[in-house]
Specification:
By secondary structure, the protein is of the alpha/beta class. It has four domains: 158 residues, Rossmann fold (3-Layer(aba) Sandwich), CATH 3.40.50.12160; 121 residues, 2-Layer Sandwich (Transcription Regulator spoIIAA), CATH 3.30.750; 114 residues, 2-Layer Sandwich (Transcription Regulator spoIIAA); 56 residues, Nucleic acid-binding proteins (OB fold (Dihydrolipoamide Acetyltransferase, E2P), Beta Barrel). The chain contains 15 helices and 19 strands. It has a six-stranded parallel beta sheet, sandwiched between helices. It has a five-stranded mixed barrel with strand order 15-16-17-19-18. Helix 13 links the parallel strand 13 and strand 14. Helix 9 packs parallel to helix 10. The longest helix is centred in the N-terminal third of the chain and has 28 residues. Bound molecules: S-adenosyl-L-homocysteine, iron/sulfur cluster (SF4) and FE3-S4 cluster. The site of FE3-S4 cluster has 11 residues, from helix 2 and helix 6. Iron/sulfur cluster binds next to helix 6.
């Protein structure tokens, strides 16, 4: 068993070494050419984190970032397929790029979740022959090799793996912020919620080794990062993956998400730890305990609800009920002082009746979420949901969405009032986008706060007295 694991590790290390050589090769070909790349990222923070890795590799190959696709010699799309609108955006952009490609010879590369769907790659084959590289979620690390192949022989490269990917360490990374950083702790998903495409395009759960995670966070702390967001489709099933069971190991006492949080909490320099997304079914007491006792772990917890109806939750394969969700919330509220909650909700999943929808509204009223990310159900080919016959008509989905939105907004307005007069710890992130004379930051509960103050307060956690509230931000004074 031991040797098997060793070999596996060696192969991924060797694979990354090979890619480093391709990076050097492409760098040599591109020497003195002052080439530019652009990258469009659709989808969730996991995709954004992947794009940071893509940018890291591409910049090492000698490309400089441009925000304008028209100036790009290499145009990358990192796609999402969780809902339909992402597809419309990709194909719209690809249409625009055709002319730019003709004028400039831009290399076009498309990767990410959507490329794991056969009907999409078929469409690209048939209708977008000018796309040079197609790569999937399991072959992201091979982009240097793909680019080298294009530069050497100009033939289209398709590099998609249907089987599960491995965990690759040691890729270069170019982060978007120098204050907040995302750290992926696990890849894939085993849950197969019946509406969701993610398990099909991201493969089974694979946890990163705690050693690699701790090393990454320690390096970030040394570089001056203050806030870390731990990422995964189901962060609280960390280590309960097939790969991990094989080894049955612990590392410095870490054998679960709860113990991982505790260790990261000890890393000096990091001020805030967030994580998304946990799954309510795996929200064990030890996780609640870690949140309560780790001072750096933010008390805003994202707890995806999806529906408030036990019947719908069963159809969705979520493995909890309305009652058990509410019980969990109560337990968390009791144990974690200053707890705030955010959530994801889907309206109009197959078979949702008015009564089911009322249950969702009921949970929203009872919990009082800080923020609700609301989605209209979008049928995803290949998921069980797409085969269900009792689909909800579009206009009813929209009506329900509007009703939910109204409730959520009125709750946020009410909730904002509670902040006025309180003192909040605010991590100041930089200048306010809308008023350059002000600085903007976020509370533990992720509310935007704007304040007046000198440049020196940027990157620091300040005590701020909230003086007024507005729908999407609070105004405060440094105390
Ligand atoms: N793993 C996370 C979230 C993954 S996708 C979790 O379980 O919470 C992010 C959100 O997109 C989901 O929480 C869900 O609310 C929404 N979503 C997923 N599939 C969808 C679909 N087919 N239509 C509409 N929304 C969807
Ligand atoms: Fe999708 Fe469910 Fe997995 Fe989240 S837990 S990624 S909603 S299948
Ligand atoms: Fe989208 Fe893939 Fe994330 S489908 S939501 S980018 S995991």
């Amino acid at each position: 068993m031991e040797t098997k694991i060793k070999n596996k590790e060696q192969t991924t290390i060797e694979e990354i070494e090979a890619q480093k050589q391709y990076i050097e090769k492409v760098k040599e070909i591109n020497k003195n050419k002052k080439l530019k790349y652009s990258i469009l990222t659709l989808g969730c923070q996991l995709n954004e984190n992947d794009s940071e890795k893509l940018s890291g590799m591409i910049e090492q190959m000698g490309y400089e970032r441009t925000e304008d696709f028209k100036d790009a010699d290499l145009a990358i799309f990192n796609t999402c397929c969780v809902r339909e609108n992402a597809e419309d955006r990709l194909f719209g952009k690809l249409g625009e790029l055709k002319k730019i490609k003709e004028e400039r010879g831009t290399i076009i590369a498309i990767g990410g979740c959507m490329m794991q769907e056969k009907h999409i790659t078929k469409k690209i084959h048939e209708s977008y022959p000018y796309v040079d590289i197609i790569f999937g979620t399991h072959t992201l690390h091979k982009v240097p090799e793909d680019i080298n192949r294009i530069l050497e022989n100009q033939k289209r490269v398709e590099d998609i793996l249907d089987i599960d990917g491995k965990v690759y360490e040691g890729l270069p990374i170019k982060r978007e912020s120098n204050l907040k950083a995302s750290v992926t702790i696990m890849y894939g998903c085993n849950n197969f919620c019946s509406y969701c495409i993610v398990p099909y395009v991201r493969g089974r759960e694979r946890s990163r080794h705690p050693k690699d995670i701790l090393e990454e966070v320690k390096n970030l702390a040394q570089e001056g990062y203050k806030e870390i967001t731990l990422l995964g489709q189901n962060v609280n099933s960390y280590l309960v993956s097939e790969n991990w069971k094989e080894t049955g190991k612990e590392y410095n006492g870490i054998n679960s998400f709860a113990t991982l949080l505790k260790e990261i909490n000890k890393i000096e320099g990091i001020e805030r730890i967030r994580f998304i997304s946990p799954h309510p079914k795996d929200f064990t007491d030890d996780v609640i305990e870690s949140i309560a006792t780790c001072d750096k772990v933010c008390k805003l917890i994202h707890l995806p609800l999806q529906s408030g109806s036990s019947k719908m939750l069963k159809v969705m394969n979520r493995k909890y009920t309305k009652e058990s969700y509410l019980e969990l919330v109560e337990k968390m509220k009791k144990r974690i002082p200053n707890l705030t909650l955010s959530t994801d909700i889907i309206v109009g999943f197959a078979g949702e009746t008015e009564e089911d929808f009322e249950d969702t509204l009921d949970v929203v009223r009872k919990v009082g979420f800080e923020q609700v990310y609301m989605f209209i159900y979008s049928i995803r080919e290949g998921t069980p949901g797409s085969k269900m016959e009792n689909q909800v008509p579009e206009e009813i989905k929209h009506e329900r969405f509007d009703k939910l939105k109204e409730l959520v907004e009125s709750q946020i307005e009410e909730n904002n009032k509670k902040y006025v007069g309180t003192i909040q710890k605010v991590l100041i992130e930089g200048l306010s986008k809308n008023n350059k004379d002000m600085k903007a930051g976020r509370t533990d509960s992720n509310k935007v706060v704007i304040v007046e103050g000198p440049d020196e307060i940027i990157n620091k956690v300040m005590d701020v007295k909230i003086v007024s509230e507005h729908m999407w931000y609070l105004k405060g004074e440094i105390v």
